[in-house]
Amino acid sequence: MSIAASWYLTLAAVVFTIGAVGLLIRRNVLVMFMCIELMLNAANLTFVTFARELNDVGGQIAVFFVLVVAAAEVVVGLGIIVAIFRRKPGATADDAHMLKG
Amino acid sequence: MEPSLLASATIPDAITFVIAGLIVVGGALGVVFMKNPVHSALSLIMTLFGIAVLFIEQNAQFLAAVQIIVYAGAIVVLFLFVIMLLGVDRNERIAAENSTAQRTGAIVLGVAVLVEVLLLGTGQWVTGAHSTTGSLTGQGANVNVIGKSLFTTYLLPFEVTSALLIVAVVAAVVLARRHDGHENVQPEIGTKEAHELAATETEAENGAPVR
């Protein structure tokens, strides 16, 4: 037997919280993006833990899809960031208010 | 109540978990609190490796390999590439970024959510039916089980994923292009663009220190 599931889930919750707090307190767009990756990884860890505990392959498949979506999200997100930086060098999240009414 | 760490685990398992857990949490804190975005990205790699170790601990070998190849090998490299491309690899003052109220609010909110989740989970962490979509301990290795499931039960989502990736690639190409849509094309002499180009060029020449 290995470590009880509760430990993994607690660890995942902690990592998710760190990611969420980081997303709220940082204004550098790139670091905010990394915090989103942290949260996705915490969710992945939860998925794998439940897959092991419930002996269900669905959890690991879900992680696979999360990975793919994360890759697509990063590609598009970084493209947007590069486009914003081309207009305003040194931009933070607060400078991206072009759609503000 | 929470079972003790060693209740059902061997000592090597417990040691691996503790070390990997410390790496994961340390890396996550590094992502948030490092001043330099490059250091944040490297901390992110640390976290991803730790999570890959935890995947192996839970018999998800395929996902551990994919985690390292896709995340550490592709996504973080993309992050670093963009950081270098934009030239934002310098230190910034985190304390000056936001108001104190905003920061305390965020931390209080985060801790409240964490405590709530942990309280809700106490005593009944994992509930529900076992092996509803298929057993994880089927025939063959972890890769066989995942592959079989991916190409039978989850075939349609898998195909949709490929469409998603193509859309992402097209989107990246569109976003990376210049706004005017005809880069590298010299404007014809006499047109408005040609005048603008000439004006910006003169500006650049005048603005640059000539020696």
Total strand segments of chain B: 0
Question: How many helices of chain B does DSSP assign?
Answer: 7
CATH topology description of chain A: Helix Hairpins
Largest interface: A-B, 71 and 93 residues
Radius of gyration of chain B, in angstroms, nearest whole number = 26 Å
Question: Which blocks of ≥5 consecutive residues of chain A have pLDDT under 50?
Answer: none
Fraction of residues in β-strands of chain B? under 5%
Task: Round the mean pLDDT of chain A to the nearest integer and report it.
Answer: 87
CATH superfamily of one domain in chain B: NADH-ubiquinone/plastoquinone oxidoreductase chain 6, subunit NuoJ
**Alpha-carbon distance between the termini of chain B?**
76 Å
Query: What is the mean pLDDT of chain B?
Result: 80
- The outline of chain B comes out as globular
The CATH architecture of one domain in chain B = Up-down Bundle
Helix content of chain B: 55-70%
Describe the structure.
The complex is a heterodimer of chains A (101) and B (211). Chain A contains 3 helices and no strands. Chain A has helices at residues 5-25, 29-54, 57-87. In chain A, α1 (5-25) runs antiparallel to α2 (29-54). The longest helix of chain A is centred in the C-terminal third of the chain and has 31 residues, at 57-87. The relative contact order of chain A is 0.12. Chain B has a domain at 1-114: Four Helix Bundle (Hemerythrin (Met), subunit A) (Up-down Bundle), CATH 1.20.120. Helix content of chain B is 66%, strand content 0%. Chain B contains 7 helices and no strands. In chain B, α1 packs antiparallel against α2 (37-57) and α2 runs antiparallel to α3. The longest helix of chain B has 26 residues, at 61-86. Chains A and B meet through α1, α2 and α3 of A and α1, α2, α3, α4 and α5 of B.
